[in-house]
UniProtKB/TrEMBL annotation:
InterPro entries: Roadblock/LAMTOR2_dom. This is Roadblock/LAMTOR2 domain-containing protein. Residues 17-91 form the Roadblock/LAMTOR2 domain. Gene3D superfamilies: Dynein light chain 2a, cytoplasmic (3.30.450.30). SUPFAM superfamilies: Roadblock/LC7 domain. Pfam families: Robl_LC7 (PF03259).
Length: 120
């Protein structure tokens, strides 16, 4: 099992994260913990456009990059974690401990960074 796959599995096995995936900047899936491949591909494409919009908006405001970003809806939250050349996405329920999700995301990013498999 690859380090990226096992790290994403550990992230998704905690009580707060329902599923997740790692995508390239253009929405290609690197690894997914989403059961349906078509749902993962759709989410990856959609999230890549959101990340592009976030980066462009922040650039116009004078910021060079973002570390993480949270999108909240009536049914849950989407956590985006910038990994440099890729983005880690975690899907959660609405009523989660944001601090614990952030800790889990940072731990997962650190493990992936240690593996040297992605440019972070």
């Amino acid at each position: 099992m690859s380090t990226i796959k096992s790290t994403l599995g550990i992230l998704c096995s905690n009580d707060f994260v329902r599923s997740g995936l790692i995508i390239t900047k253009d929405g290609m899936i690197i690894e997914s913990a989403i059961e349906s491949a078509s749902e993962a591909e759709t989410l990856g494409a959609f999230m890549s456009q959101i990340v592009l919009t976030i980066r462009n908006s922040l650039s116009e405001l004078g910021y060079k990059e973002f570390t993480r970003y949270v999108i909240q809806s009536g049914k849950g939250q989407i956590f985006l974690m910038d990994l440099g050349q890729s983005v880690m996405i975690a899907l959660t329920d609405l009523d989660v401990d944001i601090a614990k999700v952030n800790i889990a995301l940072f731990q997962a990013a650190t493990e992936i960074k240690k593996s040297g498999r992605l440019n972070i």
